Amino acid sequence: MSASLPSPTLTTLEEYEAFPEDIRAEVFDGQIYFMASPSQLHQTVLTELLVSIHDHLRKGDGRCQVFPAPFDVKLSDKPLTIVQPDILIVCDKEKLDGKRCNGAPDLTIEIVSPSNAADDYIRKLYYYKNAGVREYWIVDPRRKTVTVNYFEGNMLNVQYSFDSTVKVCIFDDLLIDFCDIADLLDI
């Protein structure tokens, strides 16, 4: 007769919220994953994307908001799944409670770090798609690629290089010129 393995203890929302503010972590199906601090390259790309998106949204109808990490997105209560996309856009203000986004954002963008590439390309792709995120971008500064997953339009893994202008599919008129971003990077 074989002994059963003890089941791992699942992290609760209360435990997650008790972490010190300087601890960066995500929770997938109740399992906690700690994150390293982002690099200068990562933050440069994040800033440029954030400014482009923010400037565009300010000219719009004010329905959508953009947030940079760290900003929690609770995708599921049971089991608890909380992520911190590098950039997210939320158009349904009912999902915002002052602390986090509860439910799927309209757009999530992850900027790949060499230490966690599989998280962005595999794990988060799975969770974002299943949670109902409309569009998910994976920006890889080292490869100089942008992978667009427009779930709502059933468009998956469309790759662009950093010499492209990429349309944000959930908007009619938002284009991001990655040439401008590539010019700032020393890679």
Strand pairing plus helix content: what structural class?
alpha+beta
Q: Provide the gyration radius in Å.
A: 17 Å
Distance between the termini: 57 Å
User: Quick one: how many beta strands?
Assistant: 13
Percent strand equals: 25-35%
Runs in which pLDDT lies below 50 for 5 or more consecutive residues are none
Helix count from the secondary structure assignment: 4
Q: Helix amount, in percent?
A: 25-40%
Largest sheet, strands/sense/barrel: 6 strands, mixed
Q: Order of strands side by side in the largest beta sheet?
A: 3-6-8-9-10-11
**Kindly state the mean pLDDT as a whole number?**
92
SSE arrangement, N to C: HEEHEEEEEEHEEEEEH
- Indicate the overall shape: globular
Question: Any overview of this molecule?
Answer:
The chain is of the alpha+beta class. 25% of the residues lie in helices and 30% in strands. It is built from four helices and 13 strands. The protein has helices at residues 13-17, 40-59, 117-131, 178-184, and strands at 25-28, 31-34, 65-68, 72-76, 81-83, 87-90, 100-102, 107-111, 135-140, 145-150, 155-161, 165-167, 175-177. The strands form four sheets. It has a six-stranded mixed sheet with strand order 3-6-8-9-10-11, sandwiched between helices. A three-stranded mixed sheet has the order 5-4-7, covered by helices on one side. Strand 9 (135-140) and strand 10 form a beta hairpin. The model has no long low-confidence stretch (mean pLDDT 92).
